[in-house]
Each structure stands twice: as structure tokens, then as C-alpha cells.
């Protein structure tokens, strides 16, 4: 069974917010930080570490 990445991330994110209940500012900081890191000079290093 193949699940699209966006669906898996949405499900994990939803369950994480419902079960752990982190503050909304922390969620915003993580999302914004991830977005900014994806377009930075560190992106190739992060990509190599993930693969």
C-alpha cells in the first residue's frame, strides 16, 4: 500500500497536535524554520543526512 507523503505528514501532524498538545507558537516556529532551512545553504547537507 502506497500512501502519498503529504497525507502521511498530515496524519502524523494531526495526531501529534491532538495527543501531545504543543503550544501553537512552537508549531509555527517549527514550520517556518523548516521552510527557511529548505531554501538555505544548509539544504544539501540536510538532504544528504535524510537520505
Q: Topology, pairings included?
A:
Blueprint: H1 5-20, H2 24-38, H3 43-50
Summarize the structure in short.
The chain is an all-alpha fold and 51 residues long. Helix content is 76%, strand content 0%.
Textual characterization of the structure:
- The chain has 51 residues and is an all-alpha fold.
- The chain is built from three helices and no strands.
- The longest helix has 16 residues.
- It starts with a helix and ends with a helix.
Notable features of this structure?
mainly alpha; 51 residues
**Helix/strand/pairing category:** mainly alpha
Estimate the strand proportion: under 5%
Order of helices and strands: HHH
Number of H- or I-type helical stretches? 3
User: Strand tally, please?
Assistant: 0
Question: Span between N and C termini?
Answer: 21 Å
Largest sheet: none
* Unreliable stretches covering 5 or more consecutive residues: none
Radius of gyration: 13 Å
Assembly context of the chains: single chain
Task: Report the helical percentage.
Answer: over 70%
Mean pLDDT over the residues: 90
Q: How would the global form be characterised?
A: flat
